[in-house]
Design brief:
By secondary structure, the protein is an alpha+beta fold. It is built from 8 helices and 11 strands.
Length: 281
């Protein structure tokens, strides 16, 4: 038996902060169709078997410990091939796509039928987790792996890029160091409340403003290269500005019908000031 699973990266976050002490949250951005982790598992030898990294191996161990408690004996030898087409430390949920790829593969192999919600909670025991198994936006606790609320879907396009390709962020270090003031936590509560209403009403202007304000707050924690240039462009062109709060990616949100009117200008801006690839989805 061969199991093949693809887990897709989350492109930064729409909001990320805290509602109070020990109440971290994020509102996930849409999933990428470009960046992903492919995981293959087989009970028979396979070509190009790869050795699991520390976090993926921990996911396998945790899963096996769970099924043993249910009276299921782990298979003696499972052969894996796991490949990711993007780098770590960029804010594209590399750890989450790897860990969840292993958990999903084993879930299918053992026919345990654990829900995505449950797999998130397992993953969060290894690393702060992004909700990569859900393509739409969620209010999510990355430390506990808990889905707090589903948001009304609002259609938008994203234009994004790596603002500093030569830098890799220590996501664990940033996560532990992330602290917000009382006034910022109050602001995050207001931002989320307004974001939720604006998504329901398809109010793009307000939706984009909320996302941009979250990015501004988080500049005090992990500044992005030439952030002000992208911020000014976003304001002038009525776009939202989002960032990877634990990485180097950032980008713009825009209504799908306006994408063609702006993509060339964004390409020129990114080429001039960051000299890197622009991705559009």
């Amino acid at each position: 038996m061969i199991i093949k699973i693809t887990t897709y990266a989350k492109v930064g976050e729409l909001l990320q902060g805290a509602f109070g002490k020990n109440q971290p949250f994020l509102v996930s951005n849409k999933s990428s169709k470009l960046f992903k982790t492919d995981t293959i598992a087989s009970i028979n030898p396979i070509d190009e078997e790869t050795r699991l990294d520390i976090k993926s191996n921990k996911a396998k161990e945790l899963f096996h410990s769970l099924i043993e408690k249910k009276g299921i004996s782990p298979i003696d030898k499972i052969y894996f091939n796991q490949k990711r087409n993007f780098k770590v430390g960029k804010g594209l949920s590399s750890s989450s796509t790897d860990i969840l790829g292993i958990l999903l593969t084993l879930n299918k192999l053992y026919k345990t039928q654990y829900s995505n919600h449950f797999l998130y909670k397992i993953a969060s025991q290894i690393d702060p987790t992004d909700p990569c198994l859900d393509f739409n936006s969620l209010l999510f606790n990355q430390k506990s792996g808990e889905i707090l609320e589903n948001l009304n879907p609002i259609s938008y396009s994203i234009l994004y890029f790596d603002s500093d390709p030569n830098v890799d962020i220590d996501t664990i270090k940033i996560s532990k160091a992330r602290e917000y003031s009382e006034s910022q936590m109050i602001e995050f509560k207001n931002l989320y409340s307004i974001l939720k209403i604006s998504a329901k009403n398809n109010d793009y202007t307000t939706f984009f403003e909320c996302v941009t304000k979250s990015a501004l707050i988080n500049e005090t924690i992990l500044p992005k290269k030439n952030f002000t240039l992208l911020y000014d462009f976003a304001i002038e062109n009525n776009c939202g500005l989002f960032v990877a709060h634990s990485g180097t990616f950032m980008g713009l949100l825009i209504e799908p019908y306006r994408l063609k009117s702006i993509d060339f200008k964004v390409r020129c801006l990114v080429e001039k000031h960051w000299k890197t690839t622009l991705y559009i989805e």
